[in-house]
Amino acid sequence: MTERESAADIEAQAARWVVRVDRDDLTSAARAELETWLAGDSRRRGAYARAQAGWTMLDRAQILHARPPVRRDAGLATRRGLIGVMGAAVAACLAVVVVPRLLVSRYGTALGEIRRVPLSDGSMAAINTETTLDVSMKPDLRHVRLDRGEAWFEVAKDPKRPFVVESGAARVRAVGTAFSVRRRDGGCDVLVTEGVVEVWSLNDVGRRERISAGQRTFVSDEAGAAPPAAAEAAINRRLAWRDGQIVLDGDAFGEAAAEFNRYNPRKIVIADPALANQRLVGWFRTNDPESFARAAAASFGARVVVRGDTILVQSGVVASRE
Q1: pTM score, two decimals?
Q2: pLDDT per residue over 58-99, tens digit each?
Q3: In whole angstroms, what is the distance from residue 97 CA to residue 312 CA?
Q4: Number of neighbouring beta carbons within 10 Å of residue 25
Q5: Domain architecture of the chain: domains with CATH
Q6: Is 59 exposed, middle or buried (0-12, 13-18, 19+ CB in 10 A)?
């Protein structure tokens, strides 16, 4: 049985269709594909109507800007420059700033929030908990600044406009591919799920690494990129957050607890350091740290005590709530 499409995915795909229709670049086959998509789920027509309404609102917003009249065909180019604003509105992003011939968008997520947003070039970004992104679309460059957190990008192919992610001194460059970037102290993790990306640090520009699908690396702000490592299975687990999941396969309890703490105001605290080294296997929801802590504790004979927003794991076999 296939997993039911999420509401966020439907909204994002609806935004893409509205953009394509506005560009008037749909072939007969594409229009048939649109009708098939709309008929495939009762929620899709509503999402498509909302996306159309958001697009119409952008046209009205343009009128409020004091600009000289333009021909209808010239106006189309201006509308295209605002595609990302519509995508941001549909996805309920935090803030959008539009300037002539350049779109700069800021996207942010709160603690525990996971969001998918379409970008104005046709790319898609999945944004993890407590993340901020600044996206600017220029004629010759698509630039993303990741100040904190983590995001996965499905990049639309455009050889004339490279897609570059900036995170501290680290840089990740792609044309048409899919990859994630997670900001850490001193650098960032890069995981590639499709195609090839090039990574480097501004402090060592001459040393660049090419990372292919199924590979990962750490790009140090100071030392540059480490050689790529093949880790396709690990990459799939590490990106399970896109579906609101944490998947463990021999991970240490301490590391797993830290992952859950990224998403929740209720924090898991391990009282006995020896427990932190216990290894775990399992599938859990990112927003249910207590169930995870109790399942983990039961597997190695520990106990859980809940005190307000603290989920305390101690040596022992009695589970309780205070």
Answers
A1: 0.67
A2: 544 443 443 444 443 434 344 444 444 455 444 443 333 333
A3: 44
A4: 9
A5: 1-82 (no CATH), 93-242 (2.60.120.1440), 244-321 (3.55.50.30)
A6: middle
